[in-house]
Amino acid sequence: MAAGEDAVGRLRRGSGLRFEQLKGRVFEALLIGATLVGIVSLLVLFGYIVFDAVGPLAASPRWYLLYFGTLVTPTAAFTLYARRRPAVRAANARAFAAVFGGVVLSLAVYAVSDALSPYDVFIYLVFGGGPSVSIAVYARKMNDNTFAGPAVPVSMVIGVAVAAGFYDVLRPIIGTVPRWITYIAITTVPVAAITGWFAAREWTTRRGLLTAGVVVAGGFAVAGGALVSGIDPSFWVVLFSGTVVPVAFVVGSTAATNPEGRIGMLGPFVVIGGGLLGAVVERQFGIAGLDSYLTPTLLLNSWDGLNAANAGVYPQIVGSIIIVAFMGIMAIPVGIGAAVYLEEYAPATGWRGRLASLLEINIANLAGVPSVVYGLLGLALFRNTLGFGTGIVVAASGTLGFLILPIVVVSAQEAIRSVPDSRRRASYGMGASRWQTLREVVLPEAVPGVLTGTILALGRAIGETAPLVIIAVATTTYSAPSGLFSSATALPLQIFASAGNAKPEFRTGVVAATAIVLLALMILMNAIAIVVRNRYQKDD
């Protein structure tokens, strides 16, 4: 009888275990299915956008065969070759980052500097960045960072304030210098310093100084060649500094430190060469290609509301970059500072503790407030109270800064809160002060989480339209903003305006192409934060 009861018990336990395993498998299948549905839905929607933007049906079969042979096949073959060899794969990744990252960075720096005036950028860069860099270098050389942390941002703020105070005196003097010399000062010289520092760290100090000197001399040589040819050297100086120098340094350092993977440096040139070869053959033989609105005209021209083929969003691209960049400068340090105070310095008891708890609750609630409410806040503050002009950069950046501030605070709080208390106690046990513990232990551990929140905040801000409409930012402008108090617009507003155009080529092709540009800009900004975050994670 007892044996029978034991057998029944084992059978029931076995059945219960199999049922629990079945529930686990069903739950796993549901999760996989939900993920696949989401991914496929996004791919389908993005496919519709790409289809409208590039017009693939207009291309002949010969066009597809041409680029399959010149671009797809060589790129796929090289990728498979590099994938099986870790050294080649690592060199290939560095080469792609240097080439395409350098090109994009050079174009962005030139576009923003040209819009704001390189003279203004030079003045504020010297007064704002010069003292802070000097303090950081001195602290590193003396191996004493006790006061460097607070001194760097304070010196930067004071320097910018001094530059603003003496702007009317400095601007006429700096304005007598040729523009290309200011571009050498704001691009070639910093790139030379960074490249020389990397060379000194990788090899010797003498080689680092020699590398920096060669970069500066190369910048002047490029400018001289452009002047002899009768063209403005400004753009070519920026392209040399932002693209040629990093690519040359990466190629040289990889050849010296990774001889087995040096062939991986050919990866981006295989892609570029295949694309150029296909374009030459296409033009030479008159092969019908894509009916695409995603062209250089869209990226380099101003808006044309009559002819979709001539419509460009260059002012909108520059406006988006400047608005989001200034928004980040205003909101991200404030948000991180607020999070540090609430987590590390705010008392837990007393009326100050209750006030801190009330602030935390309200900040968390503000993260879910609709964006149109922030537009009303920006309208009340910047337009009605401060009397700023309609649709200027400062008002747009400030309004979007209010929008992302709660997101930055909450994400930074979570990142700081995730640092184990054992790390703090160990630091205190070794005699470190609260500030030293915060600087050397807490913040380095929290950087990946803080940057994750920053990525989410930037992704939300760059696509916002409602707050900008509320504060009367223009939907269309024909010139890039020339300063923080000049009118500007952004890509989402141009998409919003184009979607109501009477001509179908605007509602489909131009809107879709502009949406792809906006998505690419968002991915680029997020990629920078992701690279920095991953670097900190690897260092950790």
Number of strands: 0
Instruction: Detail the poorly predicted runs.
Output: none
SS class: mainly alpha
pLDDT averaged residue by residue: 84
Largest sheet: none
**Percent in strands:** under 5%
> Can you tell me the overall shape?
globular
| Helix-strand string | HHHHHHHHHHHHHHHHHHHH
Tally of separate domains: 3
Euclidean distance between termini CA atoms: 63 Å
Number of helices: 20
Radius of gyration: 28 Å
Helix content: over 70%
What labels describe this entry?
single chain; about 550 residues; mainly alpha; MetI-like fold; 20 helices; about 80% helix
Give the SSE map.
Elements: H1 2-54, H2 61-83, H3 86-116, H4 118-142, H5 148-165, H6 167-174, H7 179-202, H8 205-229, H9 234-257, H10 267-285, H11 296-300, H12 314-345, H13 350-366, H14 371-385, H15 393-417, H16 421-429, H17 434-462, H18 466-470, H19 491-498, H20 504-539
Helix pairs in contact: 1-20, 2-3, 2-10, 3-4, 3-9, 4-5, 4-7, 7-8, 7-9, 8-9, 12-15, 12-17, 13-15, 14-15, 15-17, 16-17, 17-20, 19-20
Summarize the structure.
The protein has 540 residues and is an all-alpha fold. Helix content is 80%, strand content 0%. It has 20 helices and no strands.
Task: Give a structural overview.
The chain has 540 residues and is an all-alpha fold. The chain folds into three domains: 2-54; 63-294, no CATH class; 308-539, MetI-like (MetI-like fold, Orthogonal Bundle). Helix content is 80%, strand content 0%. It has 20 helices and no strands. The chain has helices spanning 2-54, 61-83, 86-116, 118-142, 148-165, 167-174, 179-202, 205-229, 234-257, 267-285, 296-300, 314-345, 350-366, 371-385, 393-417, 421-429, 434-462, 466-470, 491-498, 504-539. Helix 3 (86-116) runs antiparallel to helix 9 (234-257) and helix 4 (118-142) packs parallel to helix 7. The longest helix is centred in the N-terminal third of the chain and has 53 residues, at 2-54. It is globular. The mean pLDDT is 84.
